Fold:
Amino acid sequence: MRALVIALGWVAAGLIILAALPLQLLLWLLTRPFDRNLAVPGRFLRLAGASLGGCYPGWHFRVEGRWPRGGGPRVVVSNHQSLLDIVLLSRLPREMKWVAKESLFAIPWMGWMFRLSGDIPVRRGDAESGGEAMARARAYLDRGMSVMIFPEGTRSRDGRLLPFKSGAFRLAIEAGVPVQPVVVSGTAAGLAKGGTRIAPCRATARLLAPISTAGLTRADIPALRDRVRAEMEAELGAPAAPPAPGPAEGR
Structure:
Protein backbone atom coordinates (compact mmCIF):
# COMPACT_ATOMS: atom_id res chain seq x y z
CA MET A 1 0.00 0.00 0.00
CA ARG A 2 2.80 2.41 0.91
CA ALA A 3 4.53 1.70 -2.40
CA LEU A 4 1.32 2.55 -4.23
CA VAL A 5 0.95 5.83 -2.33
CA ILE A 6 4.53 6.79 -3.20
CA ALA A 7 4.03 5.85 -6.86
CA LEU A 8 0.87 7.94 -7.04
CA GLY A 9 2.77 10.78 -5.40
CA TRP A 10 5.46 10.68 -8.09
CA VAL A 11 2.76 10.72 -10.76
CA ALA A 12 1.06 13.69 -9.13
CA ALA A 13 4.37 15.56 -8.86
CA GLY A 14 5.11 14.87 -12.51
CA LEU A 15 1.72 16.18 -13.57
CA ILE A 16 2.16 19.36 -11.52
CA ILE A 17 5.54 20.02 -13.12
CA LEU A 18 4.27 19.25 -16.62
CA ALA A 19 1.31 21.58 -16.24
CA ALA A 20 3.27 24.34 -14.50
CA LEU A 21 5.80 25.12 -17.24
CA PRO A 22 3.31 26.22 -19.96
CA LEU A 23 1.44 28.35 -17.44
CA GLN A 24 4.66 29.89 -16.19
CA LEU A 25 5.77 30.62 -19.75
CA LEU A 26 2.48 32.37 -20.42
CA LEU A 27 2.93 34.50 -17.29
CA TRP A 28 6.50 35.30 -18.37
CA LEU A 29 5.32 36.45 -21.80
CA LEU A 30 2.53 38.59 -20.35
CA THR A 31 4.54 40.26 -17.59
CA ARG A 32 8.12 40.40 -18.89
CA PRO A 33 7.81 43.86 -20.51
CA PHE A 34 7.14 45.55 -17.14
CA ASP A 35 8.39 42.99 -14.58
CA ARG A 36 12.20 43.36 -14.55
CA ASN A 37 12.54 41.14 -11.49
CA LEU A 38 10.37 38.36 -12.98
CA ALA A 39 8.40 38.45 -9.74
CA VAL A 40 5.23 36.99 -11.27
CA PRO A 41 6.70 33.87 -12.95
CA GLY A 42 9.01 33.48 -9.98
CA ARG A 43 6.21 33.53 -7.46
CA PHE A 44 4.25 31.09 -9.61
CA LEU A 45 7.18 28.65 -9.49
CA ARG A 46 7.38 28.89 -5.68
CA LEU A 47 3.66 28.15 -5.39
CA ALA A 48 4.04 25.18 -7.73
CA GLY A 49 7.02 23.99 -5.71
CA ALA A 50 5.13 24.31 -2.44
CA SER A 51 2.25 22.28 -3.91
CA LEU A 52 4.60 19.33 -4.40
CA GLY A 53 4.56 18.91 -0.64
CA GLY A 54 1.01 17.62 -0.91
CA CYS A 55 1.95 14.76 -3.24
CA TYR A 56 2.86 12.45 -0.37
CA PRO A 57 0.55 12.41 2.68
CA GLY A 58 3.40 11.51 5.03
CA TRP A 59 5.07 14.88 4.52
CA HIS A 60 4.06 17.70 6.84
CA PHE A 61 5.62 21.13 6.28
CA ARG A 62 5.35 24.23 8.44
CA VAL A 63 6.82 27.74 8.39
CA GLU A 64 7.32 29.34 11.81
CA GLY A 65 7.94 33.00 12.51
CA ARG A 66 6.92 36.08 10.57
CA TRP A 67 8.57 37.89 7.74
CA PRO A 68 9.90 41.10 9.32
CA ARG A 69 7.91 44.27 8.83
CA GLY A 70 9.28 47.23 6.97
CA GLY A 71 9.77 45.66 3.56
CA GLY A 72 12.97 46.03 1.62
CA PRO A 73 15.16 43.32 0.14
CA ARG A 74 17.36 41.02 2.18
CA VAL A 75 19.79 38.17 1.73
CA VAL A 76 17.99 35.07 2.97
CA VAL A 77 20.27 32.24 4.13
CA SER A 78 19.25 28.72 5.10
CA ASN A 79 20.91 25.48 6.05
CA HIS A 80 20.52 22.70 3.49
CA GLN A 81 19.54 19.14 4.42
CA SER A 82 17.55 17.77 1.49
CA LEU A 83 16.00 18.51 -1.89
CA LEU A 84 12.80 18.85 0.12
CA ASP A 85 14.21 22.12 1.45
CA ILE A 86 13.19 23.65 -1.88
CA VAL A 87 9.60 22.48 -1.39
CA LEU A 88 9.52 23.73 2.18
CA LEU A 89 11.24 27.07 1.59
CA SER A 90 8.94 27.77 -1.35
CA ARG A 91 6.31 28.36 1.34
CA LEU A 92 8.06 31.49 2.56
CA PRO A 93 5.73 34.45 2.07
CA ARG A 94 7.93 36.51 -0.28
CA GLU A 95 9.35 36.03 -3.74
CA MET A 96 13.14 35.85 -3.86
CA LYS A 97 15.69 34.75 -6.42
CA TRP A 98 17.58 31.58 -5.60
CA VAL A 99 21.29 31.06 -6.19
CA ALA A 100 21.66 27.37 -7.10
CA LYS A 101 24.15 25.03 -8.71
CA GLU A 102 24.26 25.27 -12.48
CA SER A 103 23.51 21.56 -13.02
CA LEU A 104 19.93 22.10 -11.81
CA PHE A 105 19.36 24.58 -14.64
CA ALA A 106 20.43 21.93 -17.17
CA ILE A 107 17.59 19.58 -16.21
CA PRO A 108 14.91 19.64 -18.93
CA TRP A 109 11.64 21.24 -17.89
CA MET A 110 12.66 21.98 -14.27
CA GLY A 111 15.74 23.90 -15.38
CA TRP A 112 13.64 25.88 -17.86
CA MET A 113 11.32 26.86 -15.03
CA PHE A 114 14.24 28.09 -12.93
CA ARG A 115 15.40 30.24 -15.84
CA LEU A 116 11.92 31.67 -16.47
CA SER A 117 11.87 32.62 -12.79
CA GLY A 118 15.13 34.53 -13.08
CA ASP A 119 16.96 32.31 -10.60
CA ILE A 120 20.75 32.46 -10.60
CA PRO A 121 22.98 29.54 -11.66
CA VAL A 122 26.51 29.15 -10.33
CA ARG A 123 29.24 26.61 -11.08
CA ARG A 124 30.82 25.25 -7.93
CA GLY A 125 34.52 25.96 -7.64
CA ASP A 126 34.49 28.46 -10.52
CA ALA A 127 35.47 31.92 -9.31
CA GLU A 128 34.32 33.63 -12.51
CA SER A 129 30.90 31.98 -12.33
CA GLY A 130 30.66 32.88 -8.66
CA GLY A 131 31.45 36.50 -9.43
CA GLU A 132 28.81 36.63 -12.15
CA ALA A 133 26.24 35.08 -9.81
CA MET A 134 26.96 37.62 -7.08
CA ALA A 135 26.71 40.45 -9.61
CA ARG A 136 23.27 39.24 -10.70
CA ALA A 137 22.22 38.85 -7.07
CA ARG A 138 23.38 42.39 -6.30
CA ALA A 139 21.37 43.73 -9.24
CA TYR A 140 18.24 42.07 -7.86
CA LEU A 141 18.86 43.53 -4.40
CA ASP A 142 19.36 46.98 -5.90
CA ARG A 143 15.95 46.60 -7.58
CA GLY A 144 14.27 45.62 -4.32
CA MET A 145 14.20 41.82 -4.78
CA SER A 146 15.48 39.50 -2.04
CA VAL A 147 17.96 36.74 -2.78
CA MET A 148 18.09 33.21 -1.34
CA ILE A 149 21.45 31.48 -0.74
CA PHE A 150 22.52 28.23 0.96
CA PRO A 151 25.83 29.31 2.57
CA GLU A 152 26.95 25.70 3.11
CA GLY A 153 27.09 25.38 -0.67
CA THR A 154 25.75 21.82 -0.64
CA ARG A 155 23.46 19.53 1.32
CA SER A 156 24.56 18.13 4.68
CA ARG A 157 24.42 14.34 4.90
CA ASP A 158 23.75 14.18 8.63
CA GLY A 159 21.89 17.42 9.37
CA ARG A 160 24.94 19.02 11.02
CA LEU A 161 25.89 22.46 9.78
CA LEU A 162 28.77 22.47 7.33
CA PRO A 163 31.20 25.40 7.22
CA PHE A 164 29.62 28.53 5.75
CA LYS A 165 31.05 30.21 2.68
CA SER A 166 31.33 33.97 2.81
CA GLY A 167 29.64 35.08 -0.42
CA ALA A 168 26.16 35.64 1.02
CA PHE A 169 27.50 37.80 3.83
CA ARG A 170 29.79 39.81 1.60
CA LEU A 171 26.80 40.40 -0.69
CA ALA A 172 24.62 41.61 2.19
CA ILE A 173 27.26 44.00 3.50
CA GLU A 174 28.11 45.43 0.09
CA ALA A 175 24.42 45.89 -0.78
CA GLY A 176 23.62 47.30 2.67
CA VAL A 177 20.72 44.90 3.27
CA PRO A 178 19.89 42.68 6.26
CA VAL A 179 20.65 38.98 6.49
CA GLN A 180 17.52 36.88 7.10
CA PRO A 181 18.42 33.49 8.61
CA VAL A 182 16.03 30.58 8.14
CA VAL A 183 16.60 27.28 9.93
CA VAL A 184 15.32 24.12 8.25
CA SER A 185 14.85 20.90 10.19
CA GLY A 186 13.26 17.52 9.44
CA THR A 187 13.52 17.47 5.64
CA ALA A 188 16.35 14.90 5.55
CA ALA A 189 14.02 12.34 7.12
CA GLY A 190 11.65 12.72 4.18
CA LEU A 191 14.28 12.53 1.44
CA ALA A 192 17.92 12.11 2.41
CA LYS A 193 20.85 13.34 0.35
CA GLY A 194 22.09 10.85 -2.21
CA GLY A 195 18.95 8.71 -2.16
CA THR A 196 15.45 8.48 -3.55
CA ARG A 197 13.78 6.80 -0.58
CA ILE A 198 10.70 8.75 0.48
CA ALA A 199 9.62 8.57 4.10
CA PRO A 200 7.25 10.45 6.40
CA CYS A 201 8.61 13.62 7.96
CA ARG A 202 7.59 16.68 9.90
CA ALA A 203 9.70 19.52 8.59
CA THR A 204 9.92 23.10 9.76
CA ALA A 205 11.40 26.30 8.37
CA ARG A 206 11.83 28.83 11.15
CA LEU A 207 12.54 32.49 10.43
CA LEU A 208 15.00 33.93 12.94
CA ALA A 209 15.39 37.62 13.68
CA PRO A 210 17.02 39.51 10.79
CA ILE A 211 20.56 40.77 11.30
CA SER A 212 21.37 44.30 10.19
CA THR A 213 24.50 45.04 8.19
CA ALA A 214 24.33 48.79 8.79
CA GLY A 215 27.80 50.21 9.34
CA LEU A 216 29.58 46.95 8.49
CA THR A 217 32.50 46.75 6.08
CA ARG A 218 34.23 43.92 4.24
CA ALA A 219 36.43 43.46 7.30
CA ASP A 220 33.28 42.38 9.19
CA ILE A 221 32.40 39.56 6.78
CA PRO A 222 33.93 36.72 8.85
CA ALA A 223 32.29 37.94 12.07
CA LEU A 224 28.89 38.27 10.39
CA ARG A 225 29.22 34.84 8.80
CA ASP A 226 30.16 33.21 12.09
CA ARG A 227 27.44 35.04 14.03
CA VAL A 228 24.72 33.87 11.64
CA ARG A 229 26.05 30.32 11.70
CA ALA A 230 26.19 30.29 15.50
CA GLU A 231 22.57 31.49 15.78
CA MET A 232 21.42 28.84 13.31
CA GLU A 233 23.41 26.15 15.12
CA ALA A 234 21.84 27.14 18.42
CA GLU A 235 18.37 26.94 16.85
CA LEU A 236 19.10 23.46 15.48
CA GLY A 237 20.25 22.42 18.95
CA ALA A 238 22.83 19.97 17.67
CA PRO A 239 26.63 19.86 17.42
CA ALA A 240 27.98 21.28 14.22
CA ALA A 241 31.15 21.03 12.21
CA PRO A 242 33.78 23.71 12.95
CA PRO A 243 33.23 27.12 11.35
CA ALA A 244 35.15 28.02 8.23
CA PRO A 245 38.64 29.37 8.91
CA GLY A 246 40.09 32.52 7.45
CA PRO A 247 38.65 35.90 6.60
CA ALA A 248 36.43 35.58 3.54
CA GLU A 249 37.18 32.53 1.45
CA GLY A 250 34.84 31.10 -1.16
CA ARG A 251 31.45 32.24 -2.26
User: Anything to note?
Assistant: Residues 2-236 form a domain with the Glycerol-3-phosphate (1)-acyltransferase fold (CATH 3.40.1130).
